[in-house]
């Protein structure tokens, strides 16, 4: 409805109705590198033994090390607020700099501070390019656990998309996702009062934040894409929790969807 802000409860209600429609249609049809140049000098951390690290630490003052730990914690928290994946090369270039010889100690101390003070854990999601995210170590709330700001509109929309992808067999065409959102009155080609440019939000912001992965489908004209969960989604929620969310919306037991139920159990 143009010009009216949709509350979360109404989005869930429409999600529920559209989900039932999609499931009924489904029954009838049966019957998702590091840059070169300046970054290159910062892309490698020398492998050092504990004794080497200790000697390097002794050549630095504790005040210097503590300052770097504080800088790194602040850098990571700012990145996490924007949900931007964190590259090791950026940590080295923008924070560690000439302290590369004690990189491991600074990162370990920063990690302990994040966990003990903020309840966050630094997790590597790309071992080839050394890309990290921060995930919450606080207890999850069943069915609604995609970070602490789960009730925000954007993450509410994200849960709907993740649910749709999972129930479609872990992969969904972009056309199917857009059609489903249209049934929620969230139109990808129109400016939304809450979400803004919906297509940009989904295909750029959620992808950049590693919640979604989008893969081009070969030999399609116009181009088509497949949507899948990204590594951040897999770290911050689970298929079991998403299935519980869908089950609550549908007022059914999770075991009603046999295939998804078995997959969720296997991934627990």
TrEMBL record:
Lineage: Eukaryota, Metazoa, Chordata, Craniata, Vertebrata
Membrane-spanning residues: none
Protein name: NSE3 homolog, SMC5-SMC6 complex component
UniProt biased composition (Polar residues): 45-56
Signal sequence residues: none
Gene3D superfamilies reported in the protein's UniProt record: MAGE homology domain, winged helix WH1 motif (1.10.10.1200), MAGE homology domain, winged helix WH2 motif (1.10.10.1210)
Location of region: Disordered: 29-60
Source organism superkingdom: Eukaryota
One GO location term (cellular component): nucleus
InterPro entries: MAGE, MAGE_WH1, MAGE_WH2, MHD_dom
Residue ranges occupied by any MAGE domain in the UniProt entry: 65-264
One matching Pfam family: MAGE
Gene name in the database record: NSMCE3
């Amino acid at each position: 409805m143009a010009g009216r802000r949709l509350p979360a409860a109404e989005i869930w209600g429409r999600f529920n109705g559209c989900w039932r429609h999609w499931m009924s249609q489904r029954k009838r049809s049966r019957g998702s590198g590091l840059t070169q140049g300046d970054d290159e000098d910062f892309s490698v951390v020398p492998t050092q033994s504990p004794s080497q690290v200790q000697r390097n630490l002794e050549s630095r003052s504790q005040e210097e090390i503590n300052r770097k730990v504080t800088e790194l914690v602040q850098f990571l928290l700012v990145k996490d607020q924007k949900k931007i994946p964190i590259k090791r090369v950026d940590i080295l270039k923008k924070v560690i700099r000439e302290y590369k010889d004690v990189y491991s100690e600074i990162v370990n101390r920063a990690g302990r501070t994040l966990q003990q003070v903020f309840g966050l854990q630094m997790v590597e999601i790309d071992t080839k390019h050394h890309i990290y995210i921060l995930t919450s170590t606080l207890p999850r709330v069943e069915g609604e656990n995609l970070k602490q700001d789960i009730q925000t509109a954007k993450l509410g929309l994200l849960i709907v998309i993740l649910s749709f992808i999972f129930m479609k067999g872990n992969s969904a065409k972009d056309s199917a996702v857009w059609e489903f959102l249209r049934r929620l009155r969230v139109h990808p080609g129109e400016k939304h009062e809450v979400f803004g440019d919906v297509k940009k939000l989904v295909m750029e912001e959620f992808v950049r934040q590693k919640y979604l992965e989008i893969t081009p489908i070969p030999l399609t004209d116009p181009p088509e894409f497949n949507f899948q969960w990204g590594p951040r989604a897999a770290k911050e929620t689970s298929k079991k929790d998403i299935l519980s969310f869908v089950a609550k919306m549908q007022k059914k037991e999770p075991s009603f969807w046999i295939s998804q139920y078995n997959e969720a159990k296997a991934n627990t």
